[in-house]
Amino acid sequence: MTVGPGRVVVLSGPTAVGKGTVMARFRELHPEAYVSISATTRPARPGERDGVHYWFVSDAEFDELIASGGLLEWAEVHGAARYGTPRRPVDEAVADGRTVILEIDLQGARQVKENCPDACFVFLAPPSAEELVRRLQGRGTETAEEQARRLETAATEMAARDEFDVVLVNEDVERTVAELVELCGL
Length: 186
Known about the structure:
This protein is an alpha/beta fold and 186 residues long.
């Protein structure tokens, strides 16, 4: 399946699978594609910048986005924070004929599937469960309790991989990005 310009590609997968790393490299290679920036209520991690990595918003601001229909999808993730995709920039990029990539969690992907069934849904999988644990622990950005919660969520997410059109195994970032680029028709 190849997705042409003006279409939406949804990239999802479990925590620590490397979605952010894959998308950072994809952006470097294809700045013409629109990669959605999610809004979140969680605090920024070291090195993250508002409007670049995420839109960091308060709970009240997030509530207003929901109430106004300003989010294409949203979810509470890991029982700790809410994430959502601002609708307007996605609609504008599609109308301009650009490929749009949404890097979102399983809950969000399911919402987009209901509202945008023509999108291409890509699941990013780890090479193994052991590698996923290694990557999560290696990040050093979560407490042991947060890691346990994320791994529990990851098991549920891995079980949903058959809901997606394509599964890419992220064993090598460059190869994974090349597969995503080919899939997007860029």
